[in-house]
């Protein structure tokens, strides 16, 4: 049996995780799974889940762990994730890390590497403000954008230390063109995983 590849990309909102996630996933032949995308899709389709989480997401708060953990457990149980996956935007809290550990445990799996996309807070805030204007996303106010950064600093940044202790953290400078950053990630991951 070939070895499954379990990857995660973390970094502040606006660092370009989604774009890089697609490239990494393609390289390793695994699906990119974004909890943010799953929530947005449900909001768009006005599903019960979408209705439950819309206001929370609009405020830039985190969806409760029980809801998010259940969604990810269901998603990674699907056939296409059996050879691995790249998670984007999950886990985001310590509780979610433990829930993911438990989900992967029965099959003897674990996270193999965590790509940390490093970016300066002011830089990403300016990027997101520009995008809000360009794409007419009136709900992306500066206040909400800054709040999301604060939530990241308080809830998610502490996980970085945990991944470092596990020896699976791969920190990459997120500043540069999409291709430059993609190459940096590819090289760093190859070194960490040996594949
Ligand atoms: P993202 O596109 O990853 O920035 O996610 C957009 C929004 O979805 C976040 O601001 C949160 O409200 C919610 N969300 C996404 N992933 C998670 C998660 N792992 N835990 C809780 N909330 C999440």
Q: Using the coordinates shown, work out and report the CATH topology of the domain at 5-31 and 85-193.
A: Rossmann fold
Shape: globular
Spatial strand sequence of the major β-sheet: 2-3-1-4-5
- Gyration radius (Cα, Å) is 16 Å
Characterize the largest beta sheet: strand count, sense, and whether it forms a barrel: 5 strands, parallel
List low-confidence stretches: none
Helix tally equals: 8
Series of H and E elements: EHEHHHEHEHHEH
Instruction: Kindly estimate the percentage of residues that lie in beta strands according to DSSP.
Output: 5-15%
Structural class: alpha/beta
The overall strand count is 5
CATH homologous superfamily (4th level) name of the domain at 5-31 and 85-193: P-loop containing nucleotide triphosphate hydrolases
End-to-end distance, in Å? Answer: 16 Å
Bound molecules: adenosine monophosphate
Helix amount, in percent?
55-70%
Q: Identify the CATH architecture of the domain at 5-31 and 85-193.
A: 3-Layer(aba) Sandwich
Mean pLDDT: 96
Could you walk me through the main structural features you see in this protein, from its secondary elements to its overall organization?
The protein is α/β, with parallel strands linked by helices and 195 residues long. It has a domain of 136 residues: P-loop containing nucleotide triphosphate hydrolases (Rossmann fold, 3-Layer(aba) Sandwich), CATH 3.40.50. It is 56% helix and 13% strand. The protein has eight helices and five strands; from the N terminus they run βαβαααβαβααβα. The protein has a five-stranded parallel sheet with strand order 2-3-1-4-5, with helices on both faces. α4 packs parallel to α5. The longest helix is centred in the last third of the chain and has 24 residues. The radius of gyration is 16 Å and the shape is globular. The mean pLDDT is 96. The protein binds adenosine monophosphate. The site of adenosine monophosphate has 16 residues, from α2 and α3. Adenosine monophosphate binds next to α2 and α3.
């Amino acid at each position: 049996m070939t070895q499954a590849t379990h990857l995660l990309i973390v970094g502040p909102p606006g660092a370009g995780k989604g774009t890089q996630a697609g490239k990494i996933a393609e390289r390793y032949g695994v699906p990119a799974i974004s909890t943010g995308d799953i929530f947005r899709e449900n909001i768009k389709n006005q599903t019960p889940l979408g209705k439950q989480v819309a206001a929370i997401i609009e405020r830039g708060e985190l969806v409760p762990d029980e809801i998010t953990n259940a969604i990810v457990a269901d998603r990674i149980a699907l056939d296409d994730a059996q050879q691995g996956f790249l998670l984007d935007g999950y886990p985001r809290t310590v509780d979610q890390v433990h829930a993911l550990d438990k989900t992967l445990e029965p099959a003897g799996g674990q996270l193999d590497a965590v790509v940390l996309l490093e970016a300066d807070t002011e830089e990403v805030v300016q990027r997101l403000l520009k995008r809000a204007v360009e794409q007419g996303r009136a709900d992306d106010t500066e206040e909400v954008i800054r709040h999301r950064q604060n939530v990241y600093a308080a809830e998610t940044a502490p996980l970085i230390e945990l991944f470092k202790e596990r020896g699976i953290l791969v920190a990459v400078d997120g500043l540069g063109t999409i291709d430059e950053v993609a190459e940096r990630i590819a090289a760093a991951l190859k070194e960490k995983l040996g594949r």
